[in-house]
Amino acid sequence: MVQTLYGNGANSIWEHSLLDPSSSASGKRKANPQDRVHPNKTEFIKAKYQMLAYVHRMPCRDDDSVTAKDLSKQLHSSVRTGNLETCLRLLSLGGQANFFHPEKGNTPLHIAAKAGQILQAELLAVYGADPGALDSSGKTPIDYARYNKA
């Protein structure tokens, strides 16, 4: 998943705040090839990929619920495709990996599992999607994944 995202320009998402010229003034910077592996590169890699420290995040306020819901609905539709970058961007902007679509009766992970989108499922899992969540039929994403594997 990471290789696919990296090869398709995901660094513009993962390193969004580092692309801002003011980030160097705040002490944020990308690790250089000359930097020592420990602690410089190690800390940068953890911050970038595990903590998603440089990803653009929209400020969350009570009146932004419509925006988060819209992003989550877009995410719900996007996970059936192989376009990981779109889903990564929606997740980084505030789309919810566990959003239960009231009309569809399921979550993005259910959709990815039904569509056989393994990389999408992996990305959703990184963002905390629950593989044991029940859809309106009482099935989990794991159930759909098992069915597609058979």
UniProtKB/TrEMBL annotation:
<dbReference type="InterPro" id="IPR036770">
    <property type="entry name" value="Ankyrin_rpt-contain_sf"/>
</dbReference>
<protein>
    <submittedName>
        <fullName>Glycerophosphoinositol permease</fullName>
    </submittedName>
</protein>
<dbReference type="Pfam" id="PF13857">
    <property type="entry name" value="Ank_5"/>
</dbReference>
<dbReference type="InterPro" id="IPR047161">
    <property type="entry name" value="GIT-like"/>
</dbReference>
<dbReference type="InterPro" id="IPR002110">
    <property type="entry name" value="Ankyrin_rpt"/>
</dbReference>
<feature type="repeat" description="ANK">
    <location>
        <begin position="104"/>
        <end position="136"/>
    </location>
</feature>
<keyword id="KW-0040">ANK repeat</keyword>
